[in-house]
Amino acid sequence: MMAILMRHLLLNKHKIFYFFFCLGLFSCSDDTDNQLFTILTTTGILGDAVQNIVQDDKDVVVVSLMGPGIDPHTYQTTQKDVQQLEHADMIFYNGLDLEGKMNNLLKKMAQKRKVYAVGNALHATQLLCDGAIGIDPHIWFDIRLWKQVISFISQKLQAARPESAARYQNNTVAYLETLEQLHQSITTQLQSIPKEQRVLITAHDAFGYFGKAYDIEVVGLQGISTVSECGLKDINRIVQLIIKRNIKAIFLETSVSDKSMRAVLEGCAHYGHKVGVGGYLYSDALGAPDTLEGTYCGMVRANTTTIVNALK
Ligand SMILES: [Zn+2]
């Protein structure tokens, strides 16, 4: 018996070494992670908000589950996401049903750790609501509302990490000033588009808050969520509107399939009406991390430039 065991150990000694090597690696990795305060966000837009508050705090790591081009309405959590959520010290999500398929998991997580829906930063009267469809979750497109969200996140972070509260407060004040300047700047740019041409036609209704804040008429093909697909009736409705109003351009979105908007273009062509593609707008996801559009401010600036260039 002993001889068989010794033979087994000798034959598998490299595997056994590998097992203990991995064990060592994981335990080292756990030690490192334990020293860092992990803040997890669902969307990259929220990750950017947290990053602007914590900035260069070396004791903190910010992780976002949804990267560029990811649609939060239909996002399904992976096993890796669940592990990351379970190990996070704090979790921020948008709420208002944006992360529709994660609702149950987030509620479960809230029983064990600090989990915050940033939609709670806003008063019910500030939210856009369509009786039949529900509350519009795309609150980040009104910069003044997003400033309230930033203050809400900052309060929660300062309470969780009192040792860094003063730094976070200073960072927050500076970032709120940057956002106010951004609000003023894009207001001026968008008002340069003649009022009758200020119509934004997009794949899904992500720009309701944007339209209300900056006086732009917004028409979405798919409603406030991408979960249900649009039908031929919706496409015809938009085609007729484009022809009637002589609209110059429609817009595609980086996180939504452009299939239905291509059908709108074909529909317009069928009636001999020429309409252009104004370009891609960042709606529910930031651009790539190493680009200007990889930040909230960069994304808003890029969208504004695209809209002004296409509609003015
Ligand atoms: Zn959306």
Structure notes:
This protein is of the alpha/beta class and 312 residues long. It has 2 domains: 168 residues, Nitrogenase molybdenum iron protein domain (Rossmann fold), CATH 3.40.50.1980; 127 residues, Nitrogenase molybdenum iron protein domain (Rossmann fold). 49% of the residues lie in helices and 14% in strands. A 4-stranded parallel β-sheet has the order 2-1-3-4, sandwiched between helices. β7, α8 and β8 form a beta-alpha-beta unit. α6 runs antiparallel to α7 and α7 packs parallel to α11. The longest helix has 27 residues. The protein is globular, with a radius of gyration of 24 Å. The N and C termini lie far apart (86 Å). The N terminus is likely disordered. The structure holds zinc ion. The site of zinc ion has 6 residues, from loops.
Which key features would you list for this structure?
312 residues; alpha/beta; two-stranded antiparallel sheet; 14% strand; globular; disordered N terminus; binds zinc ion
Briefly summarize what is shown.
Helix 3 (44-54) links the parallel strand 1 and strand 2.
Q: What is the overall shape?
A: globular
Tally of individual domains: 2
Strand order of the largest sheet: 2-1-3-4
* Helical/strand content category: alpha/beta
Layout of helices and strands:
Blueprint lengths: L1 H10 L1 H23 L1 E7 H11 L5 E7 L12 H9 L2 E4 L9 H7 L4 E4 L11 E2 L3 E2 L7 H18 L4 H27 L7 E4 L5 H7 L2 E4 L11 H14 L3 E5 L5 H12 L5 E6 L14 H16 L1
Parallel strand pairs: 1-2, 1-3, 3-4, 7-8, 9-10
Antiparallel strand pairs: 5-6
Helix pairs in contact: 3-6, 6-7, 7-11, 9-10
The structure holds zinc ion.
The site of zinc ion has 6 residues, from loops.
